[in-house]
């Protein structure tokens, strides 16, 4: 491949275009990520003093686990679908969704004491170590090797 002055110009143009693409597309994405990270850190700092932050976090996690209400149009009418149930208004569907989120959040708190008790019984062993120990005890201490 022979380099000519025109080839150098093409390479310079390609470099400038790559820089412009980075500036136009990559840099804004990095700024959005950085801003979201700053907001998350600030929120975590304020939540350390907030006694209700744990409940809010449990509701946010439960909200992520529940599917959104879907809008279905059948001719001139609009119906709303949530968990295979059809509702005639969005408010009814959103109420059903909110109840489902509440059920999931309550279940978390109902299962929390058992999970904490189990953590005390397990001690500091990892899940892999516990599974290995359980497997060995089921085989009388024998291993395949």
Give an account of the 3D structure.
Helix content is 70%, strand content 10%. The protein is mainly alpha-helical. It folds into two domains: 1-49; 53-145, no CATH class. Strands 1-2-3 form a three-stranded antiparallel β-sheet, with helices on one face. Helix 2 crosses helix 3.
Defining traits:
145 residues, 2 domains, 10% strand, mainly alpha, three-stranded antiparallel sheet, extended, 70% helix
Quick summary:
The protein has 145 residues and is mostly helical.
Low-confidence parts: none
The percent range for strand residues is 5-15%
Q: Bin the helical content.
A: 55-70%
Helix tally? 4
Order of SSEs: HHEEEHH
**Main sheet strand line-up:** 1-2-3
Find the structural class using helix and strand composition: mainly alpha
Tell me the count of domains: 2
Shape annotation: extended
Computed Rg? 28 Å
Q: Tell me, rounded to a whole number, the average pLDDT.
A: 85
Instruction: Characterize the main sheet.
Output: 3 strands, antiparallel
Ends: how far apart?
59 Å
Number of strands: 3
Give the secondary structure arrangement, pairings included.
Elements: H1 5-47, H2 53-65, E1 70-74, E2 77-82, E3 85-87, H3 90-122, H4 127-138
Antiparallel strand pairs: 1-2, 2-3
Helix pairs in contact: 2-3
């Amino acid at each position: 491949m022979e380099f000519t002055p025109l080839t150098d110009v093409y390479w310079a143009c390609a470099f400038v275009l790559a820089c412009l693409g980075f500036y136009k597309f990559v840099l804004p994405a990095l700024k959005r990520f950085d801003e979201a990270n700053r907001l998350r850190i600030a929120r975590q700092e304020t939540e350390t003093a907030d006694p209700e932050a744990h409940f809010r976090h449990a509701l946010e996690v439960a909200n992520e686990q529940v599917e959104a209400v879907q809008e279905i149009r059948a001719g001139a009418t609009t119906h709303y679908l949530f968990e295979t149930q059809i509702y005639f208004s969005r408010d009814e569907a959103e109420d059903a969704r909110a109840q489902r989120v509440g059920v999931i959040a309550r279940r978390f708190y109902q299962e929390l004491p058992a999970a904490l008790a189990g953590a005390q019984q397990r001690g500091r062993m990892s899940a892999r170590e516990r599974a290995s120990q359980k497997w060995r005890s089921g085989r009388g201490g024998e291993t395949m090797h």
